[in-house]
Amino acid sequence: MAQQFYQTHEDAYDYLAIYNNMDIPSMPGAVAYESTVRSSGTGYGYPVQDSGQEYGSASRLQSLINMGQ
């Protein structure tokens, strides 16, 4: 979804929040969930990472929020 979004929008968003009608559920027992794309901070138990290319974001996207159905 994010890769398609970036085909028609510039990389100018920190977060993408999606509602879907494709039966893509959130996580079991959750209404929604967040998937971290980039993390550069340290000291709070989450590893530094940059998965932006997988989402089609060259530099800005921080996270994707799936609001479920």
Spans of at least 5 consecutive residues whose pLDDT stays below 50 are none
Order of helices and strands: HEEEEHE
Amount of beta strand: 15-25%
Distance between the termini: 15 Å
- For the biggest β-sheet, the strand order reads 1-5-2
Radius of gyration: 13 Å
**Count, helices:** 2
**Helix content bin:** 10-25%
Q: Please outline the major beta sheet.
A: 3 strands, mixed
Shape: flat
* Category by helix and strand content: alpha+beta
- Give the overall pLDDT as a whole number: 87
Explain what you see.
With 69 residues, the protein is an alpha+beta fold. It contains two helices and five strands; from the N terminus they run αββββαβ. It has helices at residues 2-8, 52-55, and strands spanning 15-18, 33-36, 38-39, 49-50, 63-66. The strands form two sheets. It has a three-stranded mixed beta sheet with strand order 1-5-2, with no helix packed on it. Strands 3-4 form a two-stranded antiparallel sheet. The radius of gyration is 13 Å and the shape is flat. The mean pLDDT is 87.
